[in-house]
Design brief:
By secondary structure, the protein is α+β, with helices and mostly antiparallel strands. It has 7 helices and 13 strands. The longest helix is centred in the middle third of the chain and has 53 residues, at 204-256. The protein folds into 3 domains: 1-45, no CATH class; 47-202, Immunoglobulin-like (Sandwich), CATH 2.60.40; 226-441, Four Helix Bundle (Hemerythrin (Met), subunit A) (Up-down Bundle), CATH 1.20.120. A 6-stranded antiparallel β-sheet has the order 7-6-5-4-10-11.
């Protein structure tokens, strides 16, 4: 009768969690796996441990599992993460808040810096700067270690249950534990959560309640932390996409096809570049503000952030450089043009720099859009639209190349039927925008 009752509770919990996951518009593989764990748990002993060093274990998510054993007035614990990154475990009050909690954090990279790789920390705020190591006199952990394999990080420790100035761990009764893991050994957070656990009385009901609490906490935290920033990141993406998927390609196209609009291309080119600059500036500001208000992400912790800063600087310089274009020079054209590709005039040097920096920005923008779309889908569990982007980019590149090739062939056929130039030389000639204002348009 008791077994049937427990199975009924698991089925109800599974249905509840499934409803919560599907109704919250959040795709989290961990939560889905938790449901599978709950429904399949009937064949396992409650909180059983497959590691003989520990008496009990509790699967928190599909990737995180906690092992423990009570030894007198000490807790011998091990938090194991199926992934590579820093790892932390702690005790907090009944609210489950990280702020005010006592944490044990392990980072394997600290060993290479002649630092202790496992320490106790006070968590004073949600920011990384608020995670502060405790005083040396309070570093009382025994047998502490953090190890990493190719896809596993293990934090092990022995901690006194009651210590001055710290939240007490109860040997009997519910404790509120917290945990967190990073996506690398640098302190940027990937996942975190909290759960109630009675260390001395882990039965089916305790295990079920702990897993329900973990899943509910993850849903709630995802809604709170991501819901506040999702709109901001959508705005950031729309602004950046308009800047670098519309304005920048249009600016490049007007320069490439300036012969089609010989008198108006320069105005369209400038307008597109200036618009791209302002859209990039707005997108940059939105991203900085959104990241600053999100406690789980630090500034410039990812390559997308760093490349975005570089592009903001380069775009500013590119626009300023555009308005500093040197005036047209008067040059003498002889039948014999000097050999070499090094530009000799300020206008030619400016043109080379402007052109090269423009292409660098275009290449960086392709990486930035790709990494941005990937990052967004990972953060919010949405389906990636990268295939649409790559398809659109491919169509644009092919179209541009076809039009350019057509123009080159057309110009070549016209040159073939032109008369041979007469011998002699021309005197002073002034170039203008009628042919595109490009040093490559010099004709001998």
């Amino acid at each position: 009768m008791l077994r049937k009752s427990n199975m009924l509770l698991r089925l109800i919990a599974a249905a509840f969690l499934t409803y919560q996951i599907t109704s919250k518009e959040i795709a989290t593989s961990d939560l889905a796996t938790d449901v599978a764990i709950i429904t399949s748990a009937s064949s396992e002993l409650p909180c059983s441990s497959e590691d003989p060093e520990y008496e009990h274990s509790l699967r928190i998510t599909s990737d995180v599992k906690f092992f423990w054993k009570l030894e007198g007035d000490e807790l011998k614990g091990s938090l194991r993460y199926m992934g590579v990154g820093w790892i932390g475990f702690g005790i907090t009050d009944a609210s489950g808040s990280m702020v005010g909690a006592d944490a044990i954090i392990g980072n394997p990279d600290f060993a290479f810096e002649d630092k202790m790789s496992v320490l106790k920390y006070n968590i004073d705020s949600f920011s990384i700067d608020g995670v502060v190591p405790m005083q040396e006199s309070m570093q009382t952990l025994q047998d502490s270690s953090v190890t990493q394999g190719w896809n596993m990080t293990v934090l092990s420790f022995s901690k006194l249950l009651k210590e001055d100035g710290e939240v007490e761990i109860l040997s009997s009764g519910n404790n509120k534990f917290i945990w967190a893991v990073g996506d690398s050994n640098t302190f940027n957070q990937k996942l975190w959560g909290s759960f109630f656990l009675d260390l001395s009385n882990c039965d089916d009901d305790t295990k079920l309640e702990a897993q329900k609490q973990v899943a509910a906490t993850m849903i709630m935290e995802a809604d709170v932390s991501k819901g506040l920033n999702k709109k901001a990141f959508v705005i950031h993406g729309v602004l950046a996409a308009f800047a670098w998927c519309v304005c920048a390609p249009f600016a490049v196209a007007t320069a490439w096809f300036r012969r089609l609009v010989p008198t108006g291309w320069i105005y369209m080119h400038v307008l597109a570049n200036v618009t791209c600059f302002f859209m990039t500036l707005l997108a940059f500001i939105v991203a900085v503000v959104a990241t600053g208000t999100n406690s789980t992400t630090s500034h410039f912790s990812k390559s997308h952030h760093g490349v975005g800063l570089v592009m903001m600087i380069f775009t500013t310089i590119q626009v300023m450089n555009g308005f500093m274009r040197p005036p047209i020079e008067k040059v003498s054209i002889y039948n014999e043009e000097p050999e070499g590709i090094i530009p000799r005039s300020p206008r030619a040097i400016w043109h080379a720099v402007h052109k090269c920096s423009g292409w660098v920005l275009i290449v960086l923008s392709i990486f930035q859009v790709k990494s941005g779309l990937t990052l967004y889908s990972e953060l919010f569990g949405t389906k990636s639209i990268l295939p649409i982007y790559w398809t659109t980019l491919g169509v644009f590149v092919i179209s541009v190349l076809v039009i350019k090739l057509t123009m080159v062939c057309d110009l070549s056929s016209k040159d073939d039927i032109n008369e041979e130039p007469r011998e002699g030389f021309a005197t002073s000639v002034e170039f203008s925008n009628q042919r595109g204002d490009d040093i490559s348009d010099l004709i001998t």
